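In this section we walk through a basic example: taking a raw amino acid sequence and producing a predicted 3D structure, encoded as discrete structure tokens. The instruction is simple. Fold the sequence below.
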Amino acid sequence: MKLVDWLQILSLLAVAGSLCLAALQTRSVAVQAREVTRQSRITGRALEQSAHLGLVGHSSDSLTFLITSEPRMLEWFLRTRGIPTGDHERNKLLMFLFIRADIHESNYISYLEDSLSDDIWLGWLEVVRSDCATREWALIWPAVKRYYSARFVAFVDELLEEAAVAPKPRRG
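The resulting token sequence is shown next.
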């Protein structure tokens, strides 16, 4: 074989090696791009959740002030949302449950978006079930569920259906 043939073979091997390295680099860049995209989605969800928590917190803080200081304002607020009102103590209880629904929704959405661990959610789920099992929840839920996300409404409605078909403990 001539020197020119050897040089062409070496050149061909160098080009083939370069192509293999380029393919490996392209694959690595694709993996990095997927990871950056995943992290961007997580950051976006965290910002959305933070904004939602701020909105719920601000709303709850303002309403708490109304509950403690202005019985007529509290009654007006509940009435305009379709919640049956009663005396001031009863209205405070109904408002408490309305605020709890905000908290339950926030925790549920956080759980769905992997921002709340399973063990924390499983404990909180029992709190949600307990609240939903009260007569007062049955009074407010039909009126207030329109204020919540479709996912949360479906979740609570499912809990209420489960509770309706569950055997009731016997008193005795």
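Looking at the output, two observations stand out. The first helix runs from residue 3 to 69. The radius of gyration is 29 Å. In the next section we compare this with other chains.
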